[in-house]
Amino acid sequence: FFGSHAEGETEQGGGTGNPVKGSPPRQFVAFDLETTGLDPKKERIVEIGGVRFDRKGIVVRFSVLVNPGRPMPEEASRINGISDEMLAGKPSIAEVMPDFLRFIADSAIIAHNAPFDCSFVNAELERLVALAKKREAAAGQGDLLAPPPEKDAPGATDETIKPWKPPFSALPNPVIDTRIYAKEAFPGRWKYSLQELAKDLQLDALDAHRAEDDARVCMDLFIKCAEKSAGVSVAS
After folding, report:
1. Between 32 and which of 118, 214, 223, 234 could a Cys-Cys bridge form, CB atoms 3.0 to 4.6 Å apart?
2. Which of 52, 209, 224, 228 is catalytic?
3. Phi–psi pair at 8, nearest 5 degrees
């Protein structure tokens, strides 16, 4: 499927399913987020999981808990099982995002209901860009002549820790949404949630609603969809 089927780039913006013709990316990254809620402008990321893979299988995994700088809402915690205790002492998104961007690099990125996950990443990028610009403006006024405090210094926050400015305020990667792709490959189903599709297609979901395992299941679903679109017999 990395040859005859997935021949190329996808449309931008998280709304596409089936890849379109072009030059095939050598690797893909399936990723998933856990968050404090549903609104990317108000809520925050608490976990990022991902798997980078190629035609031979998984190349590398990415998994990190993120301290959102606020209490974990009970309703979100009930879904993903992530508690305040688990997030205490974990890195902030400002510390995690550079590693995540290096992890995905220029790969095509895959997510289930991709607009949700991409909107959260883009919202965090926008906030980090705005914060960097704010610090640059303050530095230009002479307010930041002294070096910023280290991470563990008393009173250190994302606004005082050494600044990092993202190279962009929105992900430029081509995006494949497996929810849309599954509708094309396996039409006529009542539900297209990741868990329901995993059950129907006999994909092993070991730790539902945790980011790394959901990313792995998303990868497996993408492969199933690609095989079905290429005419390979798939249990459905």
Report:
1. 214
2. 209
3. 140, -170
